[in-house]
Write a structure and sequence with these properties.
The complex is a heterodimer of chains A (about 325) and B (about 260).
Chain A (H helix, E strand, L loop, with lengths): L1 H4 L10 E10 L2 E7 L2 E2 L4 E5 L6 H8 L7 E6 L2 E2 L4 H7 E4 L11 H11 L4 H14 L15 H13 L5 E5 L7 H18 L2 E6 L2 H7 L2 E6 L2 E6 L1 H7 L3 E7 L2 H9 L4 E7 L2 E6 L6 H11 L3 E7 L3 H9 L3 H15 L2
Chain B lengths: L6 H17 L1 H21 L14 H30 L2 H7 L4 H29 L7 H28 L6 H15 L11 H8 L2 H14 L6 H24 L5
Helix pairs in contact in B: 1-5, 2-3, 2-5, 3-5, 3-6, 3-9, 5-6, 5-10, 6-9, 6-10, 9-10
Classes of the chains: A alpha/beta (about 325), B mainly alpha (about 260).
Chain lengths: ~325, ~260
């Protein structure tokens, strides 16, 4: 009780407030003093590499594992005090499938609804609604065994919504799905967030996913949340745009550009020059002028805003993709 | 109403067990095979050389039938208990564990489901055994046999739950089968009276809950038994209660990983 009344972290209207939430396993600290707030209706993304502590963090919020220290309030209930109340107001979609494949889609949802104590009429009506929402109404009476990976994931999302949760946790919602199916799942997540007014907390290690879906993103690595903001602010926080120039005499051009005061940094590989530039749109003409002066022929110039990939690199000093590769390599090594 | 008594959750856990059972036809038929063949081949083969202690007026096949019925119940219900391991493997255990339902309600639902499926298996076995020549008892037997069937089932569903709660994968399954289920079956007096064992084995046999189940059902079906059926019933009840509590306790400590 002392913590809850401590000035500055009482949850008045937030969907989720965490206060120095920490989880130690034997020798590792999976989650280290994470304090953050999520407002109702947000789609909040936790972006980080595998093993960063994302899953442990949401497992604590969903009362599946108890924190080592710290606390959190979910929908007004403390996770360490009122487990069942928290469970009733949240929906959870696990990273690995958690369906009974000997039952039909409808039976899986019905099972869930009864476990959450829903009355018959509510149950029937809600079942139709959520099946509709994820586009599975026609497949409802087929055994889950015969569902595709994407259908299973959609059914799990529908199930997570069954009991009218205020907060829906999605742990890597599109892991292992093909790009087209992933895009569809994104659509469903956007729809449910809009139509059901449900707060969504999702974890992902896909940049595009965080960028496409989230109103705010927390970048997490080694159990610590490094920064939290909207995708736009995060991208602007890097402070420069990226200009890619393809030209002849690349090395000469690089030397010329390096002398310009508005260039922050420039690198070259083969005939491609990559420069970091503030307000790049206004500097493109200057770059072309430089090229003419050294006699280089410009084939193309592209200007792009920094991506979340660049943001992640900026904050953690490593690329997400490399990390994913490492893990695959380890797996290959570990299980020949 | 207490939090652990959650009729709707218990009902839906039971319902799921029923649906899965009725959809697994091969399992229904397959699990009847072994005890049925034991019954007809041992029952007819040992007809002349029947083990010492089988009452003279009782045909060996008739003597064997309650024992085989107990085995059907033992294996059937233990498998239902162990289904927790399957659920863990396929992830569904998490779905059950995150729901705002007490562990006790989960164990109750599973136990009732396992009891029902094992009971149905037992009834099917009795029907096939009749074809093989089993003679059906009078009215008193009809009251006694189902009671013992349910007690055996409740006990062994919880043996399964207990084992599944402490084991974390399928690897130990064979171990449990060979070192728990088979000895319990052989010591239960299903095949021959336990007086044929050396004394120290008889002591072990007395600690086997299945012994009292077989004895009680033998009284119901044939009118012969080692102990009085009331004593059998009481002892089996005690075992059953202890096993349900053990099952519920061990299951309540299972982590959702």
């Amino acid at each position: 009780m002392i913590i809850v009344h401590h000035a500055g972290w009482h949850a008045f209207m937030e969907a989720i407030v965490t206060h120095e939430l920490t989880k130690h396993y034997a020798a590792v600290t999976a989650v280290n003093k994470v304090s953050l707030r999520v407002m109702p209706g947000e789609v909040f993304g936790l972006l980080g590499p595998n093993g960063a502590g994302k899953t442990t963090f949401i497992k604590m919020l969903a009362t599946l594992t108890t924190p080592s220290s710290g606390d959190a309030v979910v929908c007004g209930h403390r996770i360490t005090q009122d487990r069942d109340a928290v469970r009733r107001c949240i929906g959870m979609v696990f990273q690995d499938p958690a369906l009974d494949d000997r039952l039909t889609g409808r039976e899986n949802l019905d099972f869930h609804a009864r476990m959450y104590g829903m009355k018959r009429d509510d149950r029937m009506k809600r079942l139709t609604d959520v099946l509709e929402l994820v586009g599975l109404a026609e497949k409802a009476d087929v055994l889950v065994k015969q569902y595709s990976g994407g259908m299973k994931r959609r059914l799990e999302i529908a199930r997570g919504l069954m009991h009218f949760p205020k907060v829906l946790f999605l742990d890597e919602p599109t892991l292992g799905l093909d790009p087209q199916t992933r895009y569809h799942i994104w659509e469903y997540i956007r729809q449910l967030n809009a139509r059901e007014a449900v707060t969504v907390i999702l974890t992902t290690h896909y940049m595009e996913e965080a960028d496409a879906l989230c109103s705010r993103i927390g970048i997490i690595d080694y159990g610590t949340v490094i920064t939290v903001d909207t995708p736009a602010v995060l991208k602007n926080s890097i402070g420069h745009d990226i200009v890619t120039i393809e030209a002849t005499h690349a090395e000469l051009l690089r030397a010329a550009l390096e002398k310009e005061p508005w260039i922050q940094s420039v690198t070259v590989s083969d005939s491609t020059i990559v420069a970091q530039v503030r307000e790049a749109e206004q500097k493109v003409a200057r770059a072309v002028f430089c090229a003419q002066e050294v006699g280089a022929q410009v084939r193309s110039i592209t200007v792009r805003k920094p991506s979340l990939e660049d943001v992640f690199l900026h904050y953690t000093g490593k690329r997400l993709r490399d990390d994913a590769l490492d893990i695959r390599e380890q797996r290959r090594g570990g299980h020949p | 109403m207490k939090a652990w008594f959650n009729p709707q959750a218990i009902y839906v856990l039971w319902l799921r067990e029923m649906k899965r059972y009725l959809r697994a036809r091969s399992r229904i038929i397959g699990s009847l095979g072994m005890p049925f063949f034991f019954l007809i081949f041992l029952g007819t083969g040992f007809k002349q050389f029947r083990p010492a202690g089988v009452p003279d007026h009782v045909d060996y096949l008739q003597y064997l039938a309650p024992g085989m019925l107990a085995v059907v119940l033992q294996f059937g219900s233990m498998f239902t208990g162990m289904a927790i391991l399957w659920d863990r493997q396929f992830g569904f255990l998490k779905e059950i564990m995150v729901a705002p339902v007490s562990r006790v309600a989960i164990v109750l639902g599973r136990t009732l489901g396992g009891m029902t499926t094992a009971f149905l298996q037992g009834v099917l076995f009795l029907a096939v055994a009749c074809i093989a020549g089993l003679q059906l008892p009078g009215l008193s037997g009809w009251a006694l046999v189902p009671l013992f069937m349910l007690l055996i089932a409740a006990s062994f569903v919880n043996v399964g739950i207990a084992v599944a709660s402490v084991m974390h994968d399928m690897q130990g399954f064979g171990l449990v089968m060979n070192f728990l289920m088979i000895p319990l079956f052989l010591l239960s007096g299903a095949l021959f009276p336990i007086e044929n064992f050396p004394e120290w084995v008889q002591v072990l046999a007395l600690a086997d809950p299945l012994l009292y189940g077989v004895d009680g059902m033998r009284f119901g079906l044939l009118g012969v038994s080692r102990f009085s059926p009331v004593l059998d019933g009481l002892i089996l009840c005690a075992f059953c209660t202890a096993l349900v509590i053990t099952g519920a306790f061990l299951f309540s400590r299972v982590d959702v990983e």
